[in-house]
User: What shape does this take?
Amino acid sequence: MRMVDLIEKKRDGHELTTEEINYIIKGYTVGSIPDYQVSAFTMAVVFRGMTEKERADITMAMVESGDQIDLTQIEGIKVDKHSTGGVGDTTTLVLGPLVAAVGVPIAKMSGRGLGHTGGTIDKLEAVAGFHVEIDNEEFIELVNKNKIAVIGQSGNLTPADKKLYALRDVTGTVESIPLIASSIMSKKIAAGADAIVLDVKTGAGAFMKTLEHSQELAHAMVRIGNNVGRRTMAVISDMSQPLGFAIGNALEVKEAIDTLKGEGPEDLTELCLTLGSHMVFLAQKAGSLQEARAMLEQAIKDGSALEKLKVFLSSQGGDASVVDDPSKLPQAKYTFELEAKEDGYVAEIIADEVGTAAMLLGAGRATKESVIDLAVGLVLRKKIGDQVKKGESLVTIYSNFEDVSEVKEKLYENIKISTAKVDAPILIHGEVTE
Ligand code: URA
Ligand code: CA
Assistant: This one.
């Protein structure tokens, strides 16, 4: 086989065989096919697309390019949740203990990564003593015993995707639905999921800014999952404004605790119940979505979800007393209020820009070397559609430095007030099961 022939075949709009796709991905992983040929190939994919069969084939080729996590020693159907990334997205912290409380095994591998706030592991490390440096054996034991554990990223998972994503980033070939969908799905499958619930965000703060693109990506990922034997569904959820109120690591841990107590923000609670119901249903712990939802609501009401959080934290060295006393979480030295300059209704809270304001405070990493300040961040006091009076607080700023003028300026620029009444945005834009 010659790479140039495969580039031409894709350029001319023909379907590649499984063997041909394997040849490309294997060759690229080991370095026998150079960057310039693969970038020509990915550009051909941008323009020609990929058939359903090609998408499944490239996903599995990337899964097989490296290690795969073996979760077969864990009892039950392992359902993983994946979010395409938003601002202040506290769902993972809530969903883990919540669905574990009704018996769904949560075996989560998580990372740090870049972003407006830290990754799930950074957030959890706001709890003193909590650590994810456990070995595989302990990880599996903990999930079997408690139904929930989180382990740090280890092993060499989907090296083909790492290399391909980095190449796409510098060759203008990120924006391709088959390449994005296969990239995301390969990582979930390599991490050992039997079933996958996807939270595809849509709106200003999301990777996909329009509903149409979000739906297209959701369909593509759901089809890949189902075609390779992993039951997969997607919820399309709103990210035109940040989710919940808190954006920041310790602040989001507190928000997750509130939500597990039944006292969380309405949108975060509703999204967790929706995603959680699908996880419980796919794990076959409930016969219908309605039944699954009732189980989760009960776990919040009777305190078992909160109890599960305590067990989870203490099993990995964390000080679980923060659950009853969140003031033990890292606290910022200063708080400032962002006061509304006029009367009106909140019309826009541009999520990614508000996320960047949290990053300016030190809540997230701008580069891999940045050090996160777990205590700092933002808590929204108003959301889109809320009425506001001049002088009322729009946002509380939690900071470890005194001069927050740059942060305030960014927030004022990106929180828009209108004199006309504004409707709150729809939270769930759709569900995709095929
Ligand atoms: N996120 C990924 O993991 N891969 C892509 O290709 C795009 C976004
Ligand atoms: Ca939040």
Notes: The chain has a mean pLDDT of 96. The chain has 16 helices and 13 strands. Residues 151 and 288 are 31 Å apart (CA to CA).
